[in-house]
Amino acid sequence: MLVDSHCHLDLIKNTVPETLVAAAQAQGVSHCLTVAVNLDHFPTLLGIARRIDNVFASVGIHPNTLGNVGVDVKTLTALADDPCVIAIGETGLDYFRSQGDFLLQQQRFRTHIQAAGKIGKPLIVHSREAALDTLRILREEHATVGVMHCFVDNWDIAQQVMDMGFYISFSGIVTFKNAKALQAVAKQVPLERMLVETDAPYLAPVPHRGKTNQPAYVRHVAEFIANLRGESFETIARVTTQNFFRLFKKA
User: Fold this and answer.
1) β-bridge partners, 212
2) What is the pLDDT of residue 65?
C-alpha cells in the first residue's frame, strides 16, 4: 500500500479525478492528498475529496500566486473546518519563479502557520531557493508539525527541518539523472521521517519524465528510493504510508 502525499487532482487536464484515482489504486496507491494552490480552486478540490473515497484535501495559497492576494487566519481556519481537509497549504516561499513582493510571500506564510497552529492541522511547505528564510519563519512562528514537500535542498537543511519535527517528502525529481545531490539526501533521511509524492501533474518520475504526472506514478518514486537505499519496495511503501497517517492524523 502506498500514499501519494501531494498531488493536484484538480490541475490534471483531460482526465477526470475518478479515473486517476482508479489508476493509482491499480498500482497499489490507496490514498491521495490533493493539495490547494489558491482559494479559487478550493471548492473544486473539496468536491473531489468529498465524493471520492480515500482522497483528502488541503487549503492554502501557493507562494507563486500572482498579485496582492492576501488571506487571514479566520478565513483559512473556516475553510479547513471540514473532515476532508487534513492540512494547511501548500504555503511557503519561492524566490525562483516569483516576481512579486517577497515580503508578501513571507507574511502569507506566517498566516498559514498561525492558522495551522490554531486548528492543529499540519503544514504543507513549499520552499525553493528560500531555505534560510523558510527555516527562520518556521522557527519564529513556532511551527512543529508538517512536511517539507518536494524537497530539493541539501542534507544540512534536511537535518534542520527534521529537528523542528517536520517530515521530508521526495517527488519524481529524486529519480532524475542529474539529481545526485538529492539522491544523497534521500539515502540519509531516516525512514521514519520520509514521505513520497508525485506533485502531479508536474515532475513525472523516470520512466515517465516529460509527461503529465499522475498519482499512480508515485510507485516509481518509492521503487527508486528503495533501490537507492538497498531497501525493499515493501518496506518503503509500508513506512511512508505509516508516516503519512502519523503526520496527517485527521486522515
Assistant:
1) none
2) 81
